[in-house]
Amino acid sequence: MSKVVDKSQRLPWICGVFGVAACLLALLPDSVGQALQYDRERILSGEVWRLFTGHFVHWNTSHLIWDVAVYFGCGIFLEWLRKPLSIVILLVGPVAISGGLLLLQPDMQYYRGLSAVDMGFFTAICLQAMSYCRLRNKSTLLVVWGFAFVTSICKPLLEALLGSTIFVSQFGDGIQASPLSHLFGVLLAVAVFKSITFCETA
Q: Is 173 helix (H, G, I), strand (E, B) or coil?
């Protein structure tokens, strides 16, 4: 691996802009959220932008605060740490995750929120940290980050078993949680990390 950590000190503004946009969208009437949310029937009718935009609208204030707090913490840090990795997860992730839900969770009509992208960011940070620790022979830190990586996998599996998300589960009447989306976020991060690392070392 020629470069494990991106040393660039450039301001991680890309994740910041999308995070601020999610906050601003929450201030608008819910009709805007309805026009942007993942809506299975409307996506299949041709409104494909919802595959992306659905991740940036939320069901309520609690949902927004949890998602955006993790998003800013993990997304901005990852962009500083390894910008290409964060940008691919941010721009490709929402569409890939929504596509997975479209194919594998046909019973879910609506979806909102950044939590699956957050899972992708957190998993990518774990993988990047583990790579750094292996390169620098930091065995203790490698164990710590390895445990964090395992928890990122176990969390959506536990949620699937419980039938509910762990941190936020009250989205409103008729709105179901989607642990599968969180698992997609983890798998996306692994695939993107491996692909970018392969391209950089090829």
A: coil
Length of the chain (residues): 202
Q: What is the mean pLDDT of each run of 10 residues along the chain (202 residues)?
A: 51 93 97 97 98 97 94 96 95 98 94 96 98 95 97 91 70 73 96 93 75
Amino acid at 177: A
Q: Which residue bears the tokens 């391209």? A: 199
Whole-angstrom distance, CA of residue 77 vs CA of residue 122: 10
Secondary structure of residue 202 in the 3-state scheme: coil
Residue pair 200/2 in contact by the 8 Å Cβ criterion: yes
CA–CA distance, 202 with 146 (Å, rounded to integer): 25
Beta-strand runs (E) in the chain:
38-39, 110-111
Query: In 3-state terms, what secondary structure has residue 138?
Result: coil
Beta bridge partners of 38: 111
Contact (CB, 8 A) for 132 and 4? yes
pLDDT 10s digits, 75-126: 999 999 999 999 999 999 999 999 999 999 999 999 999 999 999 999 999 9
Q: Does residue 38 come out as left (phi exceeding 0), alpha (psi in the -120 to 50 range) or beta?
A: beta
